[in-house]
TrEMBL record:
It is an enzyme of class 3 (hydrolase). It comes from Aliidongia dinghuensis. Its EC number is 3.6.1.31. This is Phosphoribosyl-ATP pyrophosphatase. NCBIfam families: histidine_hisI, PRK00400.1-3, PRK00400.1-5. Pfam families: PRA-PH (PF01503). GO terms for biological process: L-histidine biosynthetic process. Signal peptide: none annotated. It catalyses: 1-(5-phospho-beta-D-ribosyl)-ATP + H2O = 1-(5-phospho-beta-D-ribosyl)-5'-AMP + diphosphate + H(+).
Length: 105
């Protein structure tokens, strides 16, 4: 299991928990508009750190962004495996395009 699969499993485990104890449970309780807002905010914060050139701050904002993306997937009923499958499909498609552009040997 990769780090994002692990984080997703923790997010799912916290869902429905006590909102006074768990930020994740609180986020789900506040609902889809709040989850969408947080994902957008974290993306913008990552963009700001990229433009500022602060690598360490970008690492932190990237972790926040990935966490909120896992919450977004859970809210939408998407599993990480569905996204990994889409990435693998694209890799296959671009691999085929690369082969097609090579001269015949
Ligand atoms: N990876 C994270 C994680 N990354 C960021 N955050 C929270 O995301 C929030 C982002 O900070 P902000 O200042 O933008 O948000 P805020 O002001 O607290 O919240 P709002 O008022 O904007 O809603 C902080 O409260 C962070 O604690 C996270 N909260 C939880 N996790 C993981 O989620 C799992 C479940 O944890 P619980 O949420 O404690 O159940 C655990 O594995 C945690 O490590």
């Amino acid at each position: 299991m990769g780090p994002l699969d692990k984080l997703y499993a923790k997010v799912q485990a916290s869902r429905g928990g006590d909102p006074t104890q768990s930020y994740t449970a609180k986020l789900f309780e506040r609902g889809r508009p709040k989850i969408a807002q947080k994902l957008g905010e974290e993306a913008v914060e990552a963009v700001i750190e990229l433009m500022r050139g602060d690598k360490q701050a970008l690492v932190g904002e990237s972790a926040d962004l990935l966490y909120h993306l896992m919450v977004c997937w859970a809210e939408a009923g998407i599993t990480p495996d569905e996204v990994w499958a889409e990435l693998a499909r694209r890799e296959g498609v671009s691999g085929l395009a690369e082969k097609a552009s090579r001269p015949p040997s």
